Amino acid sequence: MEKSQIIMLEKTDSTNRYALAKFAELADSTLVLAKEQSEGKGRRGRKWLSPIGNIYASFVIKKPLHPAQNTYIGAVSAIETIRKFAPGIPFWIKWPNDVFTKTLKIAGILSERHCPENYNKSDGAVVGIGVNLNIGRDYFETNRLKATSVYAETGKEADILKFAISLHSELIRNYGIAVNSPDLLFKTWKKENILIGKNIDIIPESGFQVSGVFKDIGKDGSLILTLPDGHTRKLYSGDVSVKFK
Ligand code: BTN
Predict the structure, then answer these.
(1) Which of 41, 111, 114, 239 to mutate to test ligand 1, by most ligand atoms within 8 A of the CB atom?
(2) Residue of 73, 96, 99, 190 with fewest CB within 10 Å of its CB?
(3) How far is the CA of 228 from the centre of ligand 1 (A)?
(4) Which CATH number characterizes residue 27's domain?
(5) Sheet of 91-94, strands arranged across
(6) How many domains does the chain have?
(7) Other CB atoms closer than 10 Å to residue 197's CB: what's the count?
(8) Backbone phi, then psi, for 122, in 5-degree steps?
(9) How far is CA 139 from the centre of its chain?
(10) Enclosing domain of residue 30
């Protein structure tokens, strides 16, 4: 097997799809990067618009980790790299794994497990990371997206390759922490979830919107919600919204 590396593609349908299809031949910790994607995938079956200028990356994980840890690796690495390129701007994580500044999304994570053919058990995962880097505000307005980019926040274009190299080293570092001290990575990720304690609305994968207080996050990454009647409910996926004052 080859050494971990960054593979740069001009264009692909989705870097996650590419990395999953070539999983057996890619070395552990490889980062697959594309300048653009024709069918970028978002969470919950949504599309991820992928014009030239942003980061579309998939990180190959070949060690058996708890699925939640795969996404912590992606989210913590993304927020830490974004901070390096946009110093002084406050970023936070909206559960489960969106990186935000103020009320606007700047990055998203889609982690997918790999299962070898004719075999039910997963032998690793691909962590997809999309970061809005050099796209201007007008793109988000035209596409009616409540989103922003490093460029829109700082007024400076970032070098895509430099960003990718920095992201790759953060991913390798946080992967090491996930293997050796998963609890530490969990705590680092949890600290970025600034909505804990706030009133939120959440639309779970199956079902109707529920409202309550975002009480805590379980070790498995679940959102613990206190309902108005005092009962608690554990949610494993969903879209959180909050009324910012
Ligand atoms: C989300 O917030 O909905 C997750 C978005 C994940 C997008 C990235 S871009 C690189 C990788 N390849 C994909 O097709 N999706 C992820």
Answers:
(1) 41
(2) 190
(3) 34
(4) 3.30.930.10
(5) 6-12, 31-37, 55-61, 124-131, 104-114, 98-101, 91-94
(6) 2
(7) 11
(8) -75, 140
(9) 21
(10) 6-191
User: Quick one: 181 and 60 in the same domain?
Assistant: yes
Give domain status of residue 152, yes or no.
yes
pLDDT tens readout for residues 58-89: 999 999 899 999 999 999 999 999 999 999 99
Amino acid at residue number 166 = S
Q: Look at residue 230 and tell me if it is in a domain.
A: yes
Q: Which amino acid is it at 73?
A: I
d(CA 121, CA 59): 20
Measured from CB, residues less than 6 Å from any atom of ligand 1 are: 14-16, 37, 40-43, 46, 48, 56-58, 98, 108-110, 128-130
Residues 139 and 53 in one domain: yes
With a CB cutoff of 8 Å and minimum separation 6, the contacts of 43 are: 108, 110, 237
Tell me the three state secondary structure of residue 126: strand
| Nearest ligand 1 atom, CA 129 | 8
Q: List pLDDT tens digits, range 128-167.
A: 999 999 999 999 999 999 999 999 999 999 999 999 999 9
Residues 209, 103 share a domain: no
Q: pTM of the entire structure?
A: 0.95
Q: Check whether 2 has a pLDDT greater than 70.
A: no
Whether residues 216 and 149 fall in one domain: no
Residues 128 and 240 in one domain: no
For the CA of 57, the closest atom of ligand 1 is: 10
Ligand 1 nearest atom to the CA of residue 105, by list position: 2
Q: Which residues, including other chains, have CB under 8 Å from residue 183's CB and lie 6 or more apart?
A: 219
Angstrom distance (rounded) from CA 30 to CA 195: 33
The reply to whether 1 falls in a domain is no
Which residues are paired to 29 by β-bridges?
none
